Amino acid sequence: MTEQAPIIIVGTGLSGYSLVREIRKQDKEIPVLMVTADDGVSYSKPMLSTGFTKGKDADGLAQGSTEDMAKQLNVQVRTFATVTGIDVDAHELILGDERLAYSKLVLAWGADVIRIGLEGDGQEHVFSINDLMDYRAFRKALGEGKRVAIMGAGLIGCEFANDLRNGGYEVDVIAPSESVMPGLLPEPAANAVQQELETLGVGFHLGTVVDRVDRQGDGVSLTLANGEMLDADLVLSAVGLRPRIDLARAAGIETARGIVVNRALETSAPDVYALGDCAEVDGHVLLYVLPLMACSRALAKTLLGERVEVSYGTMPVMIKTPCCPTAVCPPPSGAQGGWEMEQDGSNVKAVFKSSGGEVQGFALTGRFAMEKQALSKEVPPIHG
Ligand SMILES: Cc1cc2nc3c(=O)[nH]c(=O)nc-3n(C[C@H](O)[C@H](O)[C@H](O)COP(=O)(O)OP(=O)(O)OC[C@H]3O[C@@H](n4cnc5c(N)ncnc54)[C@H](O)[C@@H]3O)c2cc1C
Fold it and tell me: What is 7-112+241-303's CATH number, 3.40.50.300, 1.20.140.10, 3.50.50.60, 3.60.15.10?
C-alpha cells in the first residue's frame, strides 16, 4: 500500500454512487476510484419496474452517463472491469492479471439473481432484471411480443406484473406460494393486491412452479408442475436475490447470508467495508434503498476519519403496484404479538402489535396506504 492509494469502491449501483456523493459533501478532493463490472450509468433500480407505467425505456430511466458522474463527483470510474479477488494483506484489489492498491476498500457489489434450473430448449427466452443493462436486453427482446410469463410472486414479480399490464401485455404469474409476497404481507393484504392485479387482467398460477420451458414458434410453451400449459413470448424470472459473497469469502472475509459487517460497516478485514445489497449489517440483510442510504451517510464519515455507526430509522417500503397502492413495514423476525386487521374490500389496514400493545410493523393497501407516515412514527427503528 502506498500513501497515494485511493479509496476504491466496487460497484456503481445506488450504494456506490450514494456513498461517493456523501464523501464529496465533506471532502471534494480525496482520491476515489470506482470499479464496476457494468457500464457505470447511473439509474435508480426501483424505477426498473415502472418503465411502462411512466412511459420510459432503458435510456429514459438512465439518470447520468458514466462520464457525467465521474466529472460531477470528481472520481475515476473504471467500467466493464470485473473484480476477481481481494488480497487483504497486500491491500490490493485483483482484476484478472491486474492489481490495484487501495487505502480503503468498499464492497458495494450488490446481489445476484437466483437462477433456477429449468428443463427444455427455450432458455434464451428466460430473462431476469437486476440492473439497467438487463432491462435494456429485456425490452429489446420483448420487441413485438405480447405475452409475458413471470416466475415469482414476490415484490419484484408483482411490480413487473402491474407494469407490464400497464404496457398492454398479457401477463401470467407462476409461483410456489399460495399467496403473493409471502413473508412480506399478511394474507388479507396479499389477497387484496392479488385481487386488484387480477382485476387488471393478470393471471395467477399459485402453488405450482415452472418445470419446462420449450421453444414454440417465436415464443415458448411452459409446462407447470400442476400439469397446466402456458404460452408466452418471454419469461421473466423474479425468484429472488442472493447477496454476492463468494469473492469476499475466498479472500478470508467473514460472510454469512451477506458479507458480515458491524454498524460501522467494517468487515473482518482491516480497511475493507461492505454496503448495500451485498452486506449483512449487524445481522440484517436488507435489500432496500433506505438502509443503504443510511449506511452511505455513516460510512462516508468513517472513511474520512470519524468512525460513525449507522442507525436506522423506521424504513417502510412502498410496493409499486399502482392498481393497489401498498406500504409495508414488516415486524422484526421473531417478534411476539399478532396482526390486527381492518378491511373494506381491497383496502386493508394490518397492524402488528406486541402483547403490550406496541406497534411493531404494518401492511397497508388501497386507501389505507396513505396512513404510512403516521404509522411509521409509531414503529420502533431496527435495533441489533
Ligand atoms: C425491479 C426492482 C425494484 C425494486 N424496488 C425497490 C423499491 O421500491 N424500494 C426499495 O427500497 N428497494 C427496491 N429495490 C431494491 C433496490 O433497488 C436495491 O436494494 C439497490 O438498488 C441495491 O443497490 P446496490 O448498489 O447495493 O447494488 P447494485 O445496484 O446491484 O450494484 C452492484 C454494482 O456492483 C457491480 N459489481 C458486481 N460484481 C462486481 C465485480 N465482481 N466486479 C466489479 N463490479 C461488480 C455491478 O456492476 C454494479 O455496478 C428494487 C430492486 C429491483 C430489482
Answer: 3.50.50.60
pTM: 0.95
Structure confidence by residue, pLDDT tens digits, 109-144: 999 999 988 999 999 999 999 999 999 999 999 987
Q: Which of 34, 36, 45, 245 has most ligand 1 atoms within 8 Å of its beta carbon, as the pocket-test mutant? A: 45
Task: Quickly state the pLDDT bin for 106 (edges 50, 70, 90).
Answer: very high
The Cα angle at residue 130 between residues 127 and 134, in degrees rounded to 5: 55
pLDDT digit string, tens, across residues 42-77:
999 999 999 999 999 999 999 999 999 999 999 999
Task: For the sheet with 338-344, list strands across it.
Answer: 317-319, 326-329, 359-365, 347-353, 338-344
User: Is there a common fold for 7-112+241-303 and 115-237?
Assistant: yes
What superfamily does domain 115-237 belong to in CATH? FAD/NAD(P)-binding domain (3.50.50.60)
Q: Determine the distance separating the centroid of ligand 1 and the alpha carbon of 112, expressed in angstroms.
A: 9
Closest CA to 101 of 30, 6, 36: 6
Which cell numbers hold the place of 271?
A: 480497511
